[in-house]
Write a structure and sequence with these properties.
Layout: H1 2-10, E1 14-17, E2 37-42, H2 49-61, E3 70-75, H3 82-90, E4 98-102, H4 107-111, E5 125-128, E6 133-139, H5 141-144, H6 148-157, E7 160-164, H7 170-182, E8 186-190, H8 195-204, E9 209-215
Parallel strand pairs: 2-3, 2-4, 7-8, 7-9
Antiparallel strand pairs: 1-4, 1-5, 6-9
Length: 216
């Protein structure tokens, strides 16, 4: 369906850099990063998948950067990645010394006009991807049906409940886009501490579905 392609275009896992890098044509006595430290912000808590990928990146990236700077990882979890992105946009100096591994799909909050998203996604400088991500929504077949069309029809009679960590989380944003483009009648049930608790809540019947990004 058309709504799927629109979500996929927005749902990339990204590395972002605040501010412009020194031009390659500038004459410099030594590499810009020589003797400097790059702060690498992680938009999740310690031990999460984003944190593990970021620390793996930081361990090996320095040898590929002219000047071989030191890379220091700092966790700024909260708000489904919004805390990290707001910090990068509003507080970090635009000197090329602060980069961030943003939770996949955080830019979706800007696309849906989330009030807590105090940034403009198109003003970041994007470095690249560590993983590929796809937006998905899953639910109990006895509650949502076997496919999207059936879920939309069922939701007209009984509103579906989407479990999520926070109203501003990536999963919530994916769900809002699904609702917008498909006409699904759903509402958020926020406050869960992660994917596993949401899955358990579906088993218990507390919620009917969950949305998010899967990566590889």
């Amino acid at each position: 369906m058309k709504w799927t392609s629109k979500i996929l275009m927005l749902a990339a896992a990204v590395w972002v850099l605040q501010g412009s890098m020194p031009g390659s044509g500038e004459a410099q006595a030594k590499p810009y990063y020589e003797g400097k430290t790059i702060l690498v912000i992680v938009g999740s808590g310690p031990g999460a998948g984003n944190d593990i990928r970021t620390r793996l990146f930081a361990r090996h990236a320095a040898k590929h950067i002219p000047g071989k700077p030191q890379l220091v990882v700092q966790n700024r979890g909260g708000g489904g990645g919004l805390r990290a992105r707001n910090y990068l946009y509003n507080i970090a100096k635009p000197d090329g010394l602060t980069i961030a591994e943003i939770i996949r799909g955080t830019g979706l909050q800007h696309a849906i006009n989330e009030p807590a998203a105090r940034f403009e996604a198109d003003k970041f400088n994007w470095i690249g991807n560590l993983t590929a991500a796809t937006a998905v929504c899953v639910g109990r077949i006895d509650r949502v049906g076997a496919n999207l069309e059936e879920a939309v029809q069922r939701s007209k009679k009984t509103q579906l409940r989407e479990g999520t960590t926070a109203a501003a989380s990536t999963g919530a944003a994916v769900g809002k886009l699904l609702k917008k483009f498909s006409g699904l009648n759903s509402r958020l049930v926020a406050g869960y501490r992660g994917g596993a608790p949401i899955d358990l809540a579906m088993e218990k019947g507390e919620v009917d579905m969950r949305c998010g990004l899967v990566w590889s």
